[in-house]
Fold:
Amino acid sequence: MKACVLLAMTIAAPPALGFELNGAALGGSEAEVRKSFPSAHCQALQWKSEAADRRCDDSQIAIGGVKARVTVYLRAGAIQAFDVSFDSAERARVAKHLRTRWGAPLGEAVESISRREGEPRRIYKARWEKGGDHAVLTAQENRKRATLEVWRGGFAEEIYRVR
Structure:
């Protein structure tokens, strides 16, 4: 009886996947990027960075059925990060999809930032972490584009650091 309950709990649990997008996961290869995003254009990074040496861009992807654009960053042949942008009106749909893939976010909130003039800015943020890997979904109300940023280690601090 206990074995059946344990088996049922295992089957019902959400998958313990790392951060991946359409089959291309952090730590994966450029070949995985090309397989997951066949129309991606890959090239050497146009500036010097410790975080990445190549990038692949594709403007024709879907995440959870939502049209999006992606940039994948690689270092020494391994995926270090990806940035996804999509219509902010689809934020709830993308967040729901990510929950089914990555589980519940560690943090989720709508922040309100006051301004001297006009109404406060309201920004939705959801954050996931798995070991040294991070993901943040951000959508500002009344803006056209929302973003999903996923990275390993210190990528976010290093990518645009001037050398």
In short: The longest strand covers residues 54-63. The two ends are 61 Å apart (CA to CA). Residues 1-16 have pLDDT under 50 and may be disordered. The longest helix spans residues 91-102.
